[in-house]
Structure formats: structure tokens, C-alpha cells
Amino acid sequence: MTNYASTPASYGAATAGQDALLLAARILLGAIFVQSGFGKLMALGGFIAGMESQGVPMATIVAPIGALVEAFGGLAIVLGAWTRLAALLVAAFTVAATVIAHRYWDAAPDAMKMQQIQFMKNLAIIGGFLSLVASGGGRFSVDGWLSRR
């Protein structure tokens, strides 16, 4: 049991609400991947063409795998199912997407700042996923429910 008397009040409040915070984090991190991943699956040809135009080798194989990881990994994160594995997979997907699509150092001068913003945003998202790898999904998750059975 943590002794909250020796810790700042804000730490105690955050720890007491940790499961609710993890739920919010999972929903906020995962939602964009669910939306984007299922969008890519519904327009797979366009996603493949986009990857080919960026020089991705074997785009016809890589694109469906990436879209599946993005969609179902995002859904697993929202639900808190296999949270650590899903967060690790979607973090790896985000690293690959960042290196492929947001190389601001190669962008035209008029696009460089926006690509740098997207690159840095993705780094923050990767950090959020790594936090979920470390913490797990919390009590308000499929993982948490299964651990109480």
C-alpha cells in the first residue's frame, strides 16, 4: 500500500484515478488508429498506391499488414485487450509511418514545417504507446477484467 502522506497530493490523486486515466489514455490514443486503419482497409488500393509512390518496397504486402495492425491494434488499445502487445505493435507501426511519410528533412521548403509538426506529433504518440506498454491497460480494460476472473 502506498503511503500518500509522504507524497504530494497531486500524486495521490493521480494514483487513485490511475485506472480512469489509463482508460482515457487508451481511448484518446487508440481512436485515431481505429478510424485511420479502417479507412485504409476500406480504400486499400489507394493506400497501396500511396505507399508505392513513397518508394515502399512490396507495398502490396506491407500496406494490408499495416492497415490491419493500425485498425485492430487501435481497437485492442481502446478495449484494453492485449494492451501491452497492441501498444508495442502500433508504436512500431507509428515509427514506420513516421519514417515513411513525415521525413521533414527531405520535404519541400513550403511543406517542411508541417511535416516536422507531424513528425514530432508522432513521437509524442509513440511515447504514449510506450507508457501503455509499461503500465498495461488498467482495471477498466479487457485485460483487467480477465485478470480478475
From TrEMBL:
Pfam families xref list: DoxX
Main subcellular location: membrane
Membrane topology according to the record: Multi-pass membrane protein
Transmembrane segments: 20-43, 55-79, 85-102, 123-142
Listed GO CC annotations: plasma membrane
Subcellular location: Cell membrane
InterPro entries per UniProt: DoxX, DoxX-like_oxidoreductase
Keywords, sorted A to Z: Cell membrane, Membrane, Transmembrane, Transmembrane helix
Stated family: Belongs to the DoxX family.
Name of the protein this chain belongs to: DoxX family protein
